[in-house]
């Protein structure tokens, strides 16, 4: 393998211009993006990304979950490729960088390799995973989960959005249902660049997060059933208020998460109240409890304590309650050699860095089960993400993409 040098860097202006150009597709109402998976905006973003990748000399493959793979050939056609990428779909009120930086950073490293005349033994495959966010079709990281064998494709196709539209039908509708068998590709390694989505790097004054672990996640959908009644004429002792039951359960979620501080977290991010009328006591509520921790035994404890406590709250109030596990994954320990490649890259390029545990779920968390994997993170302002005000600096994007390129090149092996 030829030596890596610190003058091998990406074109920061081109990367930033690409981020801003992609952000024009599916604009939000407050400066961010609403490019939810399998929408017309998603399809438009995919077409632009396809054009850019093909202009960079890569060839496209699309699997039956709609994941896009763009291949830059290596000198050894039999060598397993190094995969690199993230996701282009966003939250309904998402930012311009969550996921997108990892996809366009991967594209940029190939463009820069072309500019610099760099050849590698292993092919490099730039990847856009379908439905990472899980906001329209739960669970999150759906396509990478099927790829890693965590879900069946048929089950994924049957996932429905809030309007009852099915994932498989919407994938076909927008024209991005490929022919390739999901999970058939074999990887030499996988790298994902992402904004931190938390405040640690900025607070510590570090440019790069070397991601060693990922938190485990548990999503439990809870349905609380009471009785709809008039808010004004129903005596307090005769009420079966599903909304009040939910409120007490949410206090329990917070109490349980605090008991496992500092690394465990818990909240309800999705809440529907029925009939959601000003003068009707809620007869039914549906909400999703999100528990996370880097320790599996902590996640299991939080799940069990919540179910037992919520059941007691419901029983004491005369309410019905049902629990459904709708998503989750065990804590992740990323591949030591890939983690070292990221750390080596940061040191070679002179960037300040620190080891980091990812608090959010990412496609890399599933791919780590089937291939050596790691992640690179850059700071985001105030740790804010899943918000249209999400912001990073051009310099942070440049540092992250440079480290990504060097980590990929270490694994892909430069040839003279």
Strands, helices and their partners?
Elements: H1 12-22, H2 40-55, E1 59-62, E2 68-72, E3 82-86, H3 100-116, E4 119-120, E5 124-128, H4 142-147, H5 153-157, H6 167-173, E6 189-195, H7 200-204, E7 208-214, E8 216-225, E9 229-230, H8 242-258, E10 265-274, E11 280-281, E12 284-293, H9 296-317, E13 320-329, E14 332-333, H10 336-349, E15 353-358, H11 363-367, E16 373-378, H12 394-412, E17 414-415
Parallel strand pairs: 3-5, 3-6, 6-16, 7-15
Antiparallel strand pairs: 1-2, 2-5, 4-17, 7-14, 7-16, 8-12, 8-13, 9-11, 10-12
Helix pairs in contact: 1-3, 1-12, 3-12, 8-9, 10-12
How would you characterize this protein structure?
With 416 residues, this protein is an alpha+beta fold. 35% of the residues lie in helices and 23% in strands. It contains twelve helices and 17 strands. The strands form four sheets. Strands 1, 2, 3, 5, 6, 7, 14, 15 and 16 form a nine-stranded mixed beta sheet that branches. Strands 10-12-8-13 form a four-stranded antiparallel beta sheet, covered by helices on one side. A two-stranded antiparallel sheet has the order 4-17. Helix 1 (12-22) runs antiparallel to helix 3 (100-116), helix 3 (100-116) packs across helix 12 (394-412) and helix 10 (336-349) packs across helix 12. It is elongated, with a radius of gyration of 23 Å. The termini are close together. The mean pLDDT is 97.
